[in-house]
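Run log // design_07
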């Protein structure tokens, strides 16, 4: 973990180092960009979830589909003569169904619906540099937490509930340009890694054939940390000095490494299964439209 933190910091300072020659000639952040990046905003849209589990190069199961999404953001970009401090905090909540294609834990093939609740909280801190009276470059440090509750089969059959959690850490760069007096275009890219990844399962693990009773067990296992990457584009229209509207598209990609195999006992001690969580990868596409106001 400590090594990965050092790599994330090195990545951020690497970006800053590349920008150092430009920073020497940088000036104040253009006022239109300050307005686009400062205040509160609310966005609504959808999250496209593409999740795949693999073992030995073989696809075990997949989750795909669009989930309704809401986003709440607070941010600030100051306008000092030599640049401006930048921070941003965003919370996202998505809830809805996706399509599942794979197998239940008892080995039976399954094509069903999965109920999803996805929660993300992300923060950025950085410093912006203004250029050519219309542009700004903002290197930033990013940290976030992610939670995905997955209910395969919506509680029907032998699906069970899986609760994934992880943090993410990295560095990125935000480029912005006032393409018109009231229109600001922003593009960002960030690279880092996940940390503290784990999954808590409440799954069917044993069937008592004499009574046809399905027993459940709850188990938390650690997952391997993997790369975390995101990028996106946003267009903001400044209605007046206070209000604005925006549309945005973001892509997030990350993965989990397989867990160690652990024994799972049922609550009545009647059975035991070896359990492990396989390798997985997730790609999310977030599409939002919304409005905001300055502080």
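design_07 sequence
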């Amino acid at each position: 973990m400590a090594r990965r933190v050092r790599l994330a910091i090195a990545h951020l300072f690497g970006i800053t180092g590349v920008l150092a020659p430009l920073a020497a000639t940088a000036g104040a952040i253009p006022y239109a960009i300050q307005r686009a990046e400062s205040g509160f905003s609310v966005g609504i849209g959808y999250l496209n979830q593409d999740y795949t589990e693999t073992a030995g190069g073989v696809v075990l199961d997949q989750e795909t589909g669009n989930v309704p999404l809401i986003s709440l953001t607070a941010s600030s970009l100051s306008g000092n003569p030599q640049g401006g401090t930048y921070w941003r905090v965003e919370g996202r909540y998505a809830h809805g169904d996706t399509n599942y294609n794979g197998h239940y834990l008892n080995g039976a093939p399954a094509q069903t619906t999965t109920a999803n609740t996805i929660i993300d909280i992300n923060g950025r801190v950085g410093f912006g540099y203004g250029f050519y009276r219309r542009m700004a470059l903002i290197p930033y440090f990013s940290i976030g937490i992610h939670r995905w509750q997955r209910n395969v089969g919506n509680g029907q059959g032998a699906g069970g509930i899986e609760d994934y959690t992880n943090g993410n850490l990295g560095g990125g760069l935000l480029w912005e340009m006032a393409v018109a007096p009231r229109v600001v275009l922003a593009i960002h890219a960030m690279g880092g890694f996940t940390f503290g990844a784990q999954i808590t399962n409440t799954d069917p693990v044993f069937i008592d054939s004499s009574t046809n009773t399905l027993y459940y067990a709850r188990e938390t296992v650690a997952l391997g940390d993997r790369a975390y990457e995101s990028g996106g584009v946003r267009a903001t229209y400044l209605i007046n000095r206070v209000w604005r509207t925006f549309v945005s598209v973001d892509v997030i990609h990350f993965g989990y490494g397989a867990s160690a195999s652990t024994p799972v006992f049922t609550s009545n001690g009647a059975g035991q299964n070896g359990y492990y969580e396989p390798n997985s990868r997730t790609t999310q596409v977030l599409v939002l439209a919304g409005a905001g106001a300055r502080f």
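Helices lie at 2-23, 31-37.
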